[in-house]
Amino acid sequence: MPEPGAGRYAPSPSGDLHVGNLRTALLAWAFARSTGRRFLIRVEDLDRVRPGAEQRQLDDLAAIGLDWDEPVVRQSERLPIYQAAIDRLTAAGLTYECFCTRREIQQAATAPHGPMGAYPGTCRTLTEEARTRFREQGRPAALRLRSAATEFEIVDELHGRYRGPVDDVVLRRGDGIPAYNLAVVVDDAAQGIDQVVRGDDLLPSTPRQAYLASLLGLSVPHYAHVPLVLNAQGQRLAKRDGAVTLADQRALGATPEQVVTALAHSLGNPATSAAELLDRFDPARLPREPWILDGNGLLQRSRCP
Ligand SMILES: [Zn+2]
């Protein structure tokens, strides 16, 4: 029997999860478990880490009824596997050093046939003399992919065929840390993850990641990009939007079960627990529009189903 595939949830431990994060986690778990997959947690801690946040996030995921397969992995413990992937791309002639500052990239004109806002390729053709000069100036160098494509197509369970831009994506940042796009691709493959369920704000970067996977000879996972939770102004939900974490809700007297009930209802599912949601889970019936949450709307919804 082939090993079952896996789905995953990959939070950044920069603070507490809010209900938008919890809703995406609930969906990732339901997609994985309803298809017989393992469900893995990966802590994406290459960036900002708030002490204690990882444990609180795991506690909150358990409190809303999610379970996962061990071990929980941390990106900070996997630096050699990212470097190995970067080395393979470099050996294949597919990388180059980029000395641009963020400001220079913003000011540069977009490449004529590249996607809007994409890196214009300034450092693609730097001479060895120019690179040496930049190094002597002490300019930090990021490592970029020498992309042969400008577009790549993926298939998404909710969005269908999706074609999006591919550019010379950063593989290793100027501070030496592996870049998000590279780490995600390497991790998903290394962990046997064949189903990626995440917020649809990440859909535009998915063609880049799938292209990168194909260059590394890795299989491209199945994708499902799910609608986000937005505030009343139509912006992605954030901590400033009120009582948006489980701790906030507890302080207002709402139990995790009530929060799960509200999340399930927002997904068109009349469940009152994660287990019930899983029993009735039907991806075809998921809403395709964001869930707008205003003020203390979560509590009101959870009390008046
Ligand atoms: Zn550059």
TrEMBL record:
It comes from the Bacteria. Residues 8-280 form the Glutamyl/glutaminyl-tRNA synthetase class Ib catalytic domain. Transmembrane segments: none annotated. It is an enzyme of class 6 (ligase). InterPro entries: aa-tRNA-synth_I_CS, Glu-Q_tRNA(Asp)_Synthase, Glu/Gln-tRNA-synth, Glu/Gln-tRNA-synth_Ib_cat-dom, GluQ/Sye, Rossmann-like_a/b/a_fold. A motif ('KMSKS' region) lies at residues 236-240. GO terms for cellular component: cytosol. GO terms for molecular function: ATP binding; glutamate-tRNA ligase activity; zinc ion binding. Its cofactor is Zn(2+). L-glutamate binds at R8, Y9, A10, P11, S12, E44, Y180, R198. ATP binds at K239. Keywords: Aminoacyl-tRNA synthetase, ATP-binding, Ligase, Metal-binding, Nucleotide-binding, Protein biosynthesis, Zinc. GO terms for biological process: glutamyl-tRNA aminoacylation; tRNA modification. Zn(2+) binds at C98, C100, Y119, C123. A motif ('HIGH' region) lies at residues 11-21. Binds 1 zinc ion per subunit. Its EC number is 6.1.1.-. Catalyzes the tRNA-independent activation of glutamate in presence of ATP and the subsequent transfer of glutamate onto a tRNA(Asp). Glutamate is transferred on the 2-amino-5-(4,5-dihydroxy-2-cyclopenten-1-yl) moiety of the queuosine in the wobble position of the QUC anticodon. Belongs to the class-I aminoacyl-tRNA synthetase family. GluQ subfamily. This is Glutamyl-Q tRNA(Asp) synthetase. The lineage of its organism: Bacteria, Bacillati, Actinomycetota, Actinomycetes, Mycobacteriales.
